[in-house]
Amino acid sequence: MASTVFDSLLFRNMFGTEEMRTIFGDEALVGHYLEAEAALARAEAGLGVIPAAAGARIDAAAKQLKPDFARLGKETENVGYPILPLVHQLAEAAGEAGRYVHWGATTQDIMDTASVLQLRAAFAIITRELQALRGHLAKLAAKHRNTPMAGRTHLQQALPVTFGYKVAIWLSAIDRHIARVDQALPRILVGEFAGAAGTLASVSEHGLAIQEAFCRELDLAQPVITWHAARDGFAEAVSLLGLITGTLGKIATDVMLMMATEFGEVAEPFVPGRGSSSTMPQKRNPISCELMLAAAKGVRQHVAGMLDSMIHDFERATGPWHLEWVVIPESFMLASTALANANFMLAGLVVNEARMRRNLDLTGGLIVAEAVMMAAAAKLGRQHAHDVIYDACRKAIEEGGTLAERLVAMPEVVEALGGRAAVERCCDPVNYLGLSGAMVDRVLGR
Q: Which long-range contacts (CB under 8 A, 24 or more apart) does 376-384 make?
C-alpha cells in the first residue's frame, strides 16, 4: 500500500508527473547502474585493462539482465547500498567474465554516475517545460500589452499598469531560469570514477585514461578531480529547482489573488468538476495554483536539506549522502508537477479585461493622484502641488466623489493643468501607464 503522495494512487499525479516518476523509478535507476557498469567494462576493455572478450560479455549481460528486484531489495537493506548486490547478479549473468565486473570502481562511482544520468533526463524535461511555459507567457504578454489594470503594492492599489507588463515580469524570470539551467548543466553532468578513496589507486597507471573513456562512453564530462565528497553539483541542481518553483509560486500567488471573487480579474481554465466543492456548487477553486504553491514550498525545504547534505565528512560521508536519495527525486517530482500545472493554467488562462478596468476605476481616479501632482508641479512646484492634490484626495475619500470632480472645483489646479479637459485626461488611469508597453516589448524582444 502506498504511503506518500509520490506513490499514492490518489495523489501521485498531483505531486509529480508520470514522465518524471519513470526517470526516478527503481527500474530506471537500476538500469542506469547497469549502464554505468557496462560503460566501465567497455572503457577498460578498449584500453586493454580487462580482456576485450570480457568487456563485450559484461556489456551484453548488463543490457540483457532482468534484475531480481526482490533479491536486490533484501540484499540492499542488509548491505546498505544496492551496488554490491547488483554486481553479484551481473557477475553471475556474465559467467566467466564476471570476475572483471566493477573493476577498479567503488559503489559511489556507480551510484553518483547513475544519479547524473537521471539528472540529465530530468533536466531535459524541465527545460522543455520551461520553454513551453515561456511560449504561453509570451502570448499573454503580447496580447495584453495594453490591457490596463490596477498595480498593487502592499495589497493596496498603487498605480496603473498593464496585465501584459505583469506577465512580462513573470516571463523575464522564466528566461533567466532557462539560461541558468543551460549554464549549470556542464557543472552538473559530470561522471564519477575514482575508486575507494578517490585516488584511483587500484588502477593507478590507467586510472585517468579509464575515467576519460568511461565518461566518454556515457557522454558525460570528465571531472577535474574526484567529487565523492564535493556535492556542489547536485546541490546546484536542486537549488535551480528551488529558484524555478519559487517563480512558479509567485505566479500562482498572483493568479490566486486575482481569482478571488472580490477581484475577479482572471480565472484558471474551466474543466467540469475541477476545483469543485463538496458543499458549495458555485465554487471554482484555483487547484493548479494551489499545487504550484505547495510544490514551491516543498522544494524550498528540500533545497535546505540539499545544502545541509553538502557537509560530508572526510573522503566518504557517513550519512549526508543518503539524504540526497530522498531530496533529489522528490524535488524533481515536485518541480515537474509545478511546471505541468503552470503550463495547463497559463495556456488557458481566462482574462477578464472588463473587470480589470472596473477595479481600476474603484477609487474614482485616486490611483492616478501622482499623475495629477506631477502634471501640476510644473506650474505650482512639486511640494505645493503635492499638498493641494493631497487635500483633494482627502476630501474625495471622506466626502465622496471622484478626484476629477474635486479638482475641477479648484481653479488653481485647473489653471495649472490647462483646463477642465486636461484635468479629466490626467485623471484617466489609462493615460498613466508609464513604460509598461515598452518594457513588455523589451522582454519579448529578447
A: 376/413, 376/416, 376/417, 378/416, 379/415, 379/416, 380/412, 380/416
Catalytic positions are 154, 277
Q: What φ, ψ does residue 363 adopt, rounded to 5°? A: -90, 5
State the first-to-last Cα distance of the chain, in angstroms, to the nearest integer. 49
The SS3 of residue 149 is: strand
Q: Cα–Cα distances in Å, from 137 out to 143, 160, 174, 370?
A: 10, 20, 9, 30
Q: What is the pLDDT of residues 269-306, one digit of tens each?
A: 987 766 555 565 565 788 999 999 999 999 999 999 99
Could you report the per-residue pLDDT of 301-341, keeping only the tens digit for each?
999 999 999 999 998 888 888 999 999 999 999 999 999 99
Q: What is the per-residue pLDDT for 274? A: 67
* β-bridge mates for residue 350, sequence order: 267
* Sequence-ordered alpha helix ranges (H) in 80-162: 83-94, 107-143
Supply φ then ψ for residue 352, to 5 degrees: -100, 90
Instruction: Report the amino acid identity of residue 153.
Output: T
**233 and 350 Cβ atoms separated by less than 8 Å:** no
The residue assigned the cell 575515467 is 211
Q: What is the mean pLDDT of residues 45-51?
A: 96
392, three cell numbers: 483633494
pTM: 0.93
